[in-house]
């Protein structure tokens, strides 16, 4: 069951609009445990649908009473695991794959009130693409549409590691990158649609000091 100090389990927090109750969901050893605020107690629920998967991020992304995590299978198949806080059921969504046969990394985020997937293709000039759902009937995804592709490397031939990607409220795409050949600090860039390139976000000196302090803690 739930043990004090548990740090490796998946976590999700969402709202059940039918019961008017908030819930916490956690997955430990393929088993699902749910905490309801009205009952103020944990109970065991269903097993996750795939037992041979692992997850990139511990905390997921919540949209419309559902929690989403990107799951990886040991055979390299990726999918999106969805947990519905209302019926407490799992479902699986395909991760949009714009270029078949190439390895890519994915992040989940929310844009324009909808779930979106950000894919990074290291072997294609470190390109990023934001994929959005096209929903035609109910919540069923008819297909994924991709925004225009964004190039992280630009004119710089230096390979980079993309550590994190997110979308801000104004639909701006932020990336945290580090050069692979240099021991440098992470740099933050924001995509400028007019210039069609990523521009570095320069932080003030006191923010840099704060970043150094957090690394020492």
TrEMBL record:
<feature type="domain" description="F-box associated beta-propeller type 3">
    <location>
        <begin position="9"/>
        <end position="201"/>
    </location>
</feature>
<dbReference type="InterPro" id="IPR013187">
    <property type="entry name" value="F-box-assoc_dom_typ3"/>
</dbReference>
<dbReference type="InterPro" id="IPR050796">
    <property type="entry name" value="SCF_F-box_component"/>
</dbReference>
<dbReference type="Pfam" id="PF08268">
    <property type="entry name" value="FBA_3"/>
</dbReference>
<protein>
    <recommendedName>
        <fullName>F-box associated beta-propeller type 3 domain-containing protein</fullName>
    </recommendedName>
</protein>
<dbReference type="InterPro" id="IPR017451">
    <property type="entry name" value="F-box-assoc_interact_dom"/>
</dbReference>
């Amino acid at each position: 069951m739930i043990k004090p100090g548990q740090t490796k389990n998946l976590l999700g927090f969402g709202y059940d609009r039918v019961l008017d109750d908030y819930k916490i969901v956690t997955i430990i050893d393929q088993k699902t445990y749910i905490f309801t605020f009205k009952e103020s107690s944990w109970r065991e629920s269903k097993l996750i649908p795939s037992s041979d998967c692992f997850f990139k991020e511990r905390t997921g992304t919540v949209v419309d009473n559902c929690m989403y995590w990107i799951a990886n299978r040991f055979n390299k198949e990726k999918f999106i695991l969805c947990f519905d806080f209302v019926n407490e059921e799992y479902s699986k969504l395909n991760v949009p794959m714009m270029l078949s046969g190439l390895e890519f990394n994915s992040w989940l985020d929310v844009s324009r009130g909808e779930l979106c997937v950000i894919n990074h293709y290291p072997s294609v000039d470190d390109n990023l693409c934001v994929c959005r759902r096209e929903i035609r009937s109910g919540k069923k995804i008819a297909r994924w549409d991709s925004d225009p592709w964004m190039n992280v490397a630009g004119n710089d031939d230096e390979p980079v590691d993309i550590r994190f990607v997110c979308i801000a409220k104004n639909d701006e795409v932020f990336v945290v990158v580090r050069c692979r050949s240099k021991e440098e600090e992470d740099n933050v860039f924001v995509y400028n649609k007019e210039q069609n390139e990523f521009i570095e976000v320069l932080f003030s000196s006191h923010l840099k000091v704060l970043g150094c302090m957090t690394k020492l803690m």
